[in-house]
């Protein structure tokens, strides 16, 4: 087979030769003895070779065209696997399949040998990964900057139904996608003292670069993800070593390595730990030093920085960028204060991802002053300037109650602040940044999140992707708006049958995997009802499991009432220190073991919770889903992005008017979306009634039975008191209004049942969901950032399409 990419023709034979070369000369392995790992490495190197040329070309074109670059600063990049994604974007998947077959391996097995790069917790990190891919697809010159954590997000196991964490070790084996750049290294200081107009740090480490190329669709452009690893400034204390104190001799090294050792496993909460603040500064300072160094090789006037550089802060985690940029411009490059402030502001943008109070970063002035004394001075001056310029009282400032408010700092130091869905951006204006929005009208804008259709449709769902391409051509992959031309086929019975068949293929594959890995038999013809995301009270996995219990109870009472057979699928990790979330996990697993062994409901209901949910598991589960659970308390989920992936893959959604659900419902049509629950406004009003939960439970027979069964120990017979705390909270501390929304949710689920029992009607709505998902491509989101925040243009405009 002859595949052509734009950099060189790659036939199966040529690829095979390249793979064998790497096997022999890079890995030193004889084909006769090569393992799946060896073949994966050889194939990865061969594919990586194909990226290098477009990567160089993109870099050269950016320099030659003196183009503006975007720098995306993020503490998290949740990449998942790279090999298959790269092969798809280069058009080499088929050639690779041929090669694998010829050497006696299954390509799937090789692909699945790659560990996930889990350098993120959830949506925020995965969004950063989708953005990188979209920036490369669009040809937006960009760098991602992050930390090369030795240990990504912990692995999850269940023991007796409870979450147990073990360390993740993706870097134990060599990582074929990175290029170490020891020559790109910067010193990062900490502590010490501020000395007039400068800083004398007491400690320092070196940030050393590792680059990963990010290839866009059809290999037309490639950007760089640059991850920083921490190294000691002095490797070794020779004096101490010679005196026999071996442990102390290695101290500088140990100290530095802790900085990039491990990702903090908290999603939407922060702990205020010194090491975290140091990590944030480590990333930010390394990135800014690198950005200024690159700028100065090309331009002589730092005043031009905002015309050639746009820096985006992914939440407040890199918000120290404001003060650090000012410090570098003034202390290091001698610029005057007010000009430096202006230039920093024109260069920086800030994305807010949450309104949850426990997520809003605040550092005590003591800690900030101790770890970053010079920055503390600069923050106070920014704050003073802002107060004076806007004549505002102390309560709107950055420093309040002896704490540095990182949201306020990020806002004041940015020219644009954006929320991540229409509802969320609206709430940002009305709540956390109400006063700042009045002082700076127009600064807050919205950019609704998106996801890349390359990974989340083409890669994850080959049966559906092939069906779509057969019908409307391949244009949708690079321009998801084109998927709307599928719409008329919703009325075409043959197409609906094929659409259903594609879904069924995915459901069979998932059923087999669940059977093999968990030993639970599930029926691919039952409705697959899925909630996969971090476990958090506001996401309300407990609402889902309560409804599951009510459903089971009612099925038992009346097994022949025409229930739609269901498989409830859960996936997700809890932060290790989040006891309430861990209790919810335990309950789900306990409920699963009781329900799954009930002979009465064995053909009607199953509950499965595969451990260690991650990007690769999402790729497996989402294409096999019929019903997507997006049931957060309205006003709490800033956007959600899983919701978009399900819609693209033809799942129907049951959801609240929260985050991007609102826009999903608008796009797919309210008649194709199962809505329930209070609105964000109603939630606020409802909470004023201190009896809201008690009133709702007393009015709901269903909810009462559920809580009764749990408190009686029906799901924990060996430990009947296990859930007394959980049930007490449901009655008395129901902050997320599970009780108030319960009946509405239960009723909406029965409408779901009715539709599922009418396959034709279901499939019509499913097709319309896919056909109307064009808005949710991260390509659209990135174009929005480019136009409204970064003021950059694609380097590929006017270039011929290579299809
Ligand atoms: C998530 C939001 O919860 C989610 O609604 C949104 O879709 C996603 O970001 C992308 O915009 C967030 N993740 C984090 C993680 C940390 C701190 C704040 C947030 S908000 C560590």
TrEMBL record:
Pfam families: Phosphorylase
GO cellular component, one term: cytoplasm
Catalytic activity: [(1->4)-alpha-D-glucosyl](n) + phosphate = [(1->4)-alpha-D-glucosyl](n-1) + alpha-D-glucose 1-phosphate
Cofactors named for this entry: pyridoxal 5'-phosphate
Keywords: Allosteric enzyme, Carbohydrate metabolism, Glycosyltransferase, Pyridoxal phosphate, Transferase
GO molecular function: glycogen phosphorylase activity; pyridoxal phosphate binding
Residues where N6-(pyridoxal phosphate)lysine is found: 645
Entry's family note: Belongs to the glycogen phosphorylase family.
PANTHER family reported for this sequence: GLYCOGEN PHOSPHORYLASE, GLYCOGEN PHOSPHORYLASE, LIVER FORM
Stated role: Allosteric enzyme that catalyzes the rate-limiting step in glycogen catabolism, the phosphorolytic cleavage of glycogen to produce glucose-1-phosphate, and plays a central role in maintaining cellular and organismal glucose homeostasis. Phosphorylase is an important allosteric enzyme in carbohydrate metabolism. Enzymes from different sources differ in their regulatory mechanisms and in their natural substrates. However, all known phosphorylases share catalytic and structural properties.
Name of this chain's protein: Alpha-1,4 glucan phosphorylase
Organism: Primorskyibacter sedentarius
